[in-house]
Each structure stands twice: as C-alpha cells, then as structure tokens.
Sequence to fold (623 residues):
Amino acid sequence: MSMSLVIAAFLCALVYVGAQYNLIFLAFSASLLFMAALPSVGRREVSSPAWIFVTLAALALTSSQLFSLSPDSSFSALWGPALGLMAFLAGARSGVFLRMAWRAVVFVVLLLALRSVWALVLDGQRPGWPMTDQNNYASLLYLAFIPLLHEHLVASWTRSPSRYPWLAPLVSLVGTLVILASGSRVGLAVWLGCGGLWLTLAWVRGLSVRPVLTIFAAGAAGALVHLWLSPEPIAAVGEADTIAGGIAVRWTLLQAALSMVPSHALTGTGFFVFPLLYRQVRSDLDAESAGLFVHNDYVQFLLEGGPVLAFVLVIAGAWTFYRFVRALSAPLDSARFVSLGCLAALGALFAHALVNFVFYTPVLSLLAGFMAGLVAGADASRSPANARTQWLSYPLLVVTACGLAFLWLDVASGVILQRQPGMSWLVSETPDPDRQADFASIAHRLNPARGLPALGLAVAAEGRFRTSGDPVAARQTLLAYRQAVETDPWNTMAWWRLHDFLEANPGLATGPVASPTPEAIVARVLELDPLFVPAIEARLRALAGGDDSGAARRFLLAHLAHRWLWFAYDNKEAALHYIDQLISTAPDTPERQSLAALRERMQSVRPSVLILSLHDHLDAVRA
Fold:
C-alpha cells in the first residue's frame, strides 16, 4: 500500500497542467504522502535525530505561515518543501520495501525522457515537459538516473548478475541527450561530475573501469545524437554572453533579496512573498525574468522563512555531505556504498539550489526527501518505534493533518469562489450566489487570516446591494471590501474590486465610513504591481481628462521606462499596445526609431509556460 501511495503522490506532484488545476494535484499529492508516512506495525523505526529535524522543519514552515505578510500567497507554496518532509518519513519508515516504489519512479522519469527525445526528433521541442523550467527538468533526470547508474556499477564491481544489462547504457544515452537538449548548464556539470566521480572511485579503489567506460561511451553517443539533431543549442550552452547574462540576473535577484532580509530578520516575510516585494524594487538590470524566485534557495529560505528555516536547509545539506563522505570508504557490498548514488544526486541538488529554485518545486522536493529517507532508513532496524521517538510523531501528525484540512479548504475555495475548473462535483455549471456566500462565510470563520473568503463575502455583499439598492447594503459592501484588503493587502484584485465599487458609488468614498479614494487605490495598486493593466488604464484616463495633453504620454514613458521587456515577458499583448501608442505619437524621428528598436526586442521575448498559466489563472479569477 505504501508503495502505491508514494508512486501516486509522485505522479500528482509531477503533473503540471496550469495554475487552475495544480492546487488540486498538490492537495492530492500531500494527502497521499501523509498516508504513506503514517506509522504502522512492522515498519522501520525513525531515529530521534531524524524526528527532531523533521519537527524543527515543520515548525519553521508553520511559523513562516503565521508571520507571513501575505498568508494567501504563502500557504500553497510552503507545501513544496513540506512534501519533502513527508516523503522523507515515508522513505525512512519503509526502507527496502519502498525501493520498489523508487524503481517505479525511475521508470516514470525514463518514460518522460524518452518522450522528450521523441518530441526533440519530430518537432525540435526543447525538453522540459511536464515541468515549467528546463533546469528543474534536468534536476529531475539526474536525481532519478544517477542512483540507477551507480547501482549498475556496484553490481558490475561485485560481480552480481544484472537482470537488465542494457538499462544503464540506455539511461546514459538518453540522459545525456535530454540534459544537453534542455540547455541546463548545471545539469550537464552534475552529469559529467558524477562520471568523474565513478572514474576516480574505480582508480582509487582498484576497481574495473570497464563498466564506467561503457556508461561514458553511451553518453558520448547521446551527445553525438544531440549534435546531429541541433548543433546550435549545444554550442550555446557554453557561450560567454549567455552565461554572463544569467549570472548578472541572478546577482541582481540575490542583491534584492539580501537587501530585504534585515527588515524581516527574525520571522521572515512568509513563503513566496519575495515576488510581491521584488516587483516594487525591480531594476532595469532584470528585464526578462519572471521575478518569482531568487534562484538561490538558501537566501530565499532565509528571507521568507527566517534563520531557522535557512538553518534547516543547511543542516540537510551538511548531513548529505557527511553521509556521502562516509559512503566513499564503505565496503562495496554494503547498503551504505549502494546509497552513494542517492547521496551524490542529493548533493548535486543542494549545490544546484545555489543557482535555482529546486526546493520550491514540489516534485523535486518530494523526490529528494524520499531519497534521503531511503538513505536514512538503510541501517535502521525493523523494531517498533520506542517511547523516545513515538511521542515526537503525534504533534507533527496533528499539525500536518490540520494543514491538509486547510489545503483542501483552499481547493474548495478556489473552485466555488473563483470558478476554477477541475472538481465538477464541488460546483455546478451555473454559479449559485447564495451557495457561494454561504461557503465564503463558513471558510472565513474557519480561516479568518485568509483573504479569499473575505473577498468572497464582499462580492456576495455587492451582489445583494445590486439587487436591493439599499444604502445600508452599500455600506455593508464597503466594509466587506475594506476587510478583504486589510486581510490580504497584497491582493490587487481585491483592491480593484473596491476601486470599481467606489467608482460606481462615488458618494461612499466621502461618506461616514472613511475609505480610500479611487485615485488613491490606483496609486496603491500600481505600487503593488506596476504592470497591472486596469490600473495603468485608469491612470491614463485620468491624465487624458486633465488640462495637460501630454501628461498621459509622459506617464507611460516614465512608468514603463525600465519595465518594457519585463512587461513583454509578463503580458506581451498589452506591452506592444502601449509602445505602439508611443510610437504613433512620437514627436521626432530619432525617438520613433528608438521606440521601434525597443519594440523589436519586446517582440522577440517568449513568455514561459508558468507565466502563461498564471495569466490563465488570473483570467479565471476576474471572470
């Protein structure tokens, strides 16, 4: 049963079909892992240090939610590392039995890699599906393939018969081809570094290099296939200008994050709050990144979770390094030496976290936690948990169960209040305002710190006001919208609903209930999100109606001065619309030519799959 639960959880975490659906898959994955990690008779004992580590990490994640500047933004994101903790417990408890699940996971990843080869050959498609980032896709490949190749080498060195002698060369060929095609420099460095590790091991310990050379030959064949299919991308991997550009953007993100740390040194900002803060201080040095991650998990954990959460990540990396060093000198036929492959892959992931967002990616966090659990449980006995460790499990299980309940409440809130698709049994085709209002009231009582139920109550109150026209209902609606923006002051959609309501009822802004004016809300929204198109349009309308005929044009030039490429990356249609306006009204030829050259650069920007899916999500919210 545990094996099936882990495999199902992995598949749910792996699938990405858009922001509307993925909260549902995340909730399923977390629930399945929770059941897989539960204690049961005859399963392995988890050591006291492991329980203390997991408990400390869970407390750090929970406290980051309690102190979050935007609980709505933080809650679903913190389940990424939380999946890793539950997968660690599942792997540590079940040990050898769940190696069957591990092999099933590797088989799934191999199928994905073969699908990538097929898409590359037929369409020239860059590998990455079903993930949204090619670097993280490369991480998934080396996490799955390095332990498999190491087990093959151990079998060769110990003269153990292999049931599938062709599997390791196939994995080496396909892995090299797909990692090269993904364009991930770190992924390629990890892949080559592990080959160097195996050669060094064979030389130092006097082992045969023949199986290592066989893997190298298969990898070389994969590189030749990639060179034949796409010679230009393989050269681009080492281009100095692209490497320098990537370093510059990461350095800009890192500086921005470190500048925010002193203001939130003890508690952190809350998980996934960095993108909310960063878009207010973003400079022209970072014109094209999504701005969602620091691309350094250690610094982002420090900023968003405080020193305790960052310390947890560092301790996990140090434990991996310690076990790796011990495994290097272990006997060839020992479980410790076999675990060297998992430890090498985990160590590479911790190194990769210095330049990417691996532990914010649920499937990578899950797989890393599961691998670490298998390593930690490799030497454990099958005796039942003793009293020293048993009592540590109960508080953690209760906290996790409560968290899962709130996660499913979020799923239901998204479906019922935001009309997100994916669970037709929760909502009918035609929205029922009364049912939505009742649900929003229940959800708000259960979780008053979250902004979405409060916004649902405000929308329901506005519906009642439109039906009745009662002035009392108008004031109740205003109070409900104010509560929504006070509960989650980072939610631009809540602010904009309040803006539209005040514009439709101008007397309320100066009535007995003090409220911000629509103009003040426009300024606030542009501060929170400079590229929020409805707010830009409102500012342009206000300026166009004034005495200064050139004020609207000057606003566009000043407001979007260093944001054009970012705007094109985020919303190309709107960005091109505004630059076309400026080109058509340019007073002289040089300025028109400069803007036209900028437009060409904007036209070449290609939004990521993640950005496109987020826009789909926002369209669903606005509807």
Summary: Confidence is low (pLDDT under 50) at residues 234-238, 425-430, 609-623. The chain is about 70% helix and 0% strand.
